[in-house]
Amino acid sequence: MSGKAVDKLTAKEAAAELERLAAEIARHDKLYYSKDAPEITDAEYDLLRRRNAAIEARFPSLAREDSPSTRVGAAPAEKFGKVRHAVAMLSLDNAFDAEDARAFVQRVQRFLNLNAPPEFTAEPKIDGLSASLRYESGKFVQGATRGDGREGEDVTANLRTIADIPHTVKGAPAVLEVRGEVYIEKAAFAKMNARLEAEGKQTYVNPRNSAAGALRQLDPKITAARPLRFFAHGWGEVSEPLAGSQYDAMRRLEKMGFPLAGLKRARNAEQLLSEYERIFESRARLAYEIDGVVYKVDNLALQQRLGFVSRSPRWAIAHKFAAEQQTTLLEGIDIQVGRTGALTPVGRLKPVFVGGVTVTNVTLHNPDYIAGVDNDGQPIRGGKDLRIGDTVVVQRAGDVIPQIVDVLLEKRPKGARKFHFPETCPVCGSRVARELEPGEAGAIARCTGGLNCPAQVVERLIHFVARRAMDIEGLGAKQIEEFHELGWVKEPADVFRIADHRGELMEREGYGEKSVTNLLASIEARREPEFARFLYALGIRDIGETTAGVIARRFESWDAFEAAVRAAAKARPGETYEVLARVAGLGDGARTALIEAAPALRAPRGDLLDEGEAPKIRGVSAKAWASLIDAFGSVPDAIAAVKAAAKEAPGDDYLELGRIDGVGPVAAGHLVDFFAEKHNTDALKRLLKEVTVKDQPRAATSSRVAGLTIVFTGALERMTRDEAKARATALGAKVAGSVSKNTNLVVAGPGAGSKLAEAEKLGIKVIDEDAWIKLSS
Questions:
Q1: Nearest-angstrom CA–CA distance, 469 and 540
Q2: Does residue 432 form part of some domain?
Q3: What is the DSSP string of 570-601?
Q4: Phi, psi torsion values for 709, nearest 5 degrees
């Protein structure tokens, strides 16, 4: 991807990028897990997640609740029964080169505070469909897909048809869940496709898609007719430990009758990399498709200490194979309008097979990308622009998304057409605005139509009724699109008026008395939503589930929240302040110092162009003045801009909203923008006539540290600092890096210095490591 490096992103740019990534990854999740029709390779998908995680690590307050880092896969399909996984089926973080693999080993060693790396295992990563097999008293009783990691699809009958999966096992714990991959061997896949082609039927793109489609058939006889195989690679719930190490546990599963793809031990990073090279070299000779090598910490007690972070275990990583490139034609460029109005250009490609998948389109990000420059104005692809009709080089894997990495100018036809970015929305005709100044990473074009834009309305309505939002069962994307086209549902309030169309609905194909009754009952059951769920359902930019929860806990009632936001809207900054805020190189601290000093500032005489001639203000460096002069032309002009900005600076009510821990100025700004738009507030008023938002219940928890702000200082001897922080976070506490009046507890070990002194000065409770372990156990 040609986007700006993560360490150069501003908060606003980061928020825009996280929004784009969340939507794009969710779309690919649905294609991969629910429709078995991925458009990108696993490696490309992995790096989408990787960039998302890197941005969240730098801007933790901007992490969205719909962030890919909080979920795995996609929700189960409606046609199968649902299975709640007793132990979540998480995915793995990824390494893409030797340095990533070495860094993984170093992270593990550092987290555990070991003098040398622990032992690891290495095994091929099967390119198949994840499945979980549950055995009780030695009998296979239930099988499920991964689904979204917490809830999968019940495909027990289909899994019973796979010869590799034993129906009974000896020597197993009373409860045993075996995790692994369902796959099709390459030769069997080729034979099956040849038969389909001879019969004039559509062939499958790759073995993984074929295996996924076969396993998710409603008729087990169809599944049985497909040459499905199974490899075990781990376990979920067990009533007793299988062994003391990953290696021994897997060998025990192998003795029970579960096939393994191969497993070797390694003592350090270099041995892991040696095994990676061996497996990579043997890849073409293997009977099945693999897309990397999985490394795991061997000692299970150490695995438990390492624990998990978000959607992945700390003790394992997938080292992916490298990218593949092919050439094809750029046949056209379309514009997609997302839920928040973002206009994204998408290149239509002549279908090309790259990395095991047929690629038909590729995201082109923004006008700068098409022009051949990155968001800093630096050339990409050698500065070559993209034109319709160009021959392009497409890379899949190893980069964030399906990516055009080069343009073959020698093959550019005379009639190749330049692409002109639209000035009006292709869906509703509203004006298109770029939120940030040209050249910044967030040069995202947005439709200004809001809820008047059909593209945004439909996507927002789909979000509104989704399981993690209002959770209206039986009302999904298909129904929303249908009802919107009929004119029944044009805004959220209309969802609660669908009953007015009961008679018409009964006459439509696919709807009967029972289904309509159930749908209307589901809608009625959601007329009293919880505060946090309702706020999240509104689909306001950067207000994910987590942020919505923070806001709900802060204000407790909807009325109090709405009053605060309306007050903040009256105190929002004006355009001259926004101009000052966009000056590159001018940090928040310097801008605040300038605004505070503005009343006393006097512009010197003359056309002064040197920062050395600027007034001396505490907190405003010569470099900051240079940025101001570069933006406004001279010292007097810069001072005039500062004084004008000070008159339109944000008021306390606006700033207070952005200071809420867990919200931040970016999300606060989007809240204010939403409530400042009359279309939105009118729609909200109509919605609030249909529903009653319940006050946010105060969280109840058995954890004794939930809700506390904790600071760790000094050396810890029985666990590492990272382990202590991870335990505190898992128990609902917030870990801070410094002591303040908001700190509730300080855990102090030997060598504690200034933080301990500050805690004692403020009268904050201080405990030692033993007391912490007892408190958190």
A1: 12
A2: no
A3: HT---HHHHHHHT-TT--HHHHHHHHHHGGG-
A4: -100, 120
Same domain for 163 and 111: yes
Query: What is the per-residue pLDDT across 613-636, written as a single tens digit (0 to 9) for each?
Result: 567 788 888 888 888 887 887 878
- Name the domain boundary from 320, 348, 381: 320
Chain-centroid distance of CA 501 in Å reads: 37
Task: Say yes or no: 147 and 104 in one domain.
Answer: yes
Type of residue numbered 370: I
**Least confident window among 17-31, 127-141, 757-771:** 17-31
Task: Round to whole Å and give the CA distance between 543 and 18.
Answer: 12
Please give the pLDDT value at position 33.
57
Q: Is a pLDDT exceeding 60 seen at residue 699?
A: no
- Which phi and psi angles does 360 have, rounded to 5°? -120, -15
What CATH number did the domain enclosing 86 receive?
3.30.470.30
Summarize pLDDT for 356-368 with one digit per residue, the tens.
677 888 888 888 8
* 190, 301: one domain: yes
Per-residue confidence (pLDDT) for residue 306, from 0 to 100? 93
**Which residue do the tokens 């990533």 mark?**
100
pTM of the predicted protein model: 0.51
CA atoms lying within 13 Å on the CB side of residue 275? 24
The confidence score (pLDDT) of residue 698 equals: 62
Q: Residue 722 and residue 142: Cα distance in Å, rounded? A: 37
Range of the domain at 372: 6-70+323-418
Looking at the predicted structure, is the pLDDT value of residue 101 above 80? yes
Can you tell me the distance from the alpha carbon of 234 to that of 683, in angstroms, rounded to the nearest whole number? 50
Nearest residue to 188 (alpha-carbon basis) of 230, 227, 231, 229: 227
d(C-alpha 395, C-alpha 615), whole Å: 52
Domain count, the chain: 5
User: How far apart are the C-alpha atoms of 735 and 710, rounded to whole Å?
Assistant: 5
Residue 642 inside a domain? The answer is yes
- Residue range 672-681, pLDDT digits in tens: 888 887 878 8
Comparing C-alpha atoms, which of 487, 482, 530, 528 is closest to residue 508?
A: 482
- Of 4, 30, 79, 125, the catalytic one is 125
Same domain, 570 and 662: yes
Same domain for 574 and 676?
Answer: yes
Let me know if residue 702 belongs to a domain: no
pLDDT of 489 higher than 90: yes
Q: Which residues of 78-104 are buried (b: 16+ CB within 10 A; e: fewer)?
A: eebeebebeeebbbbbbbbeeeebbeb
Q: What pLDDT, on the 0 to 100 scale, is given for residue 751? A: 76
Instruction: Report CA Rg, the chain.
Output: 29
Q: At what angle do helices 622-632 and 635-647 cross, to 10 degrees?
A: 90
Q: Tell me if residue 125 is catalytic.
A: yes
Contact 58, 89 (CB under 8 A): no
CA–CA separation, 191 and 358 (whole Å): 19
Max mean pLDDT among 102-116, 214-228, 569-583, 654-668 falls in 102-116
What dihedral do alpha carbons 751, 755, 757, 760 form, nearest 10°?
-120
Counting residues of the chain whose pLDDT is more than 70, the rounded percentage is 90
Q: pLDDT at position 456, please?
A: 84
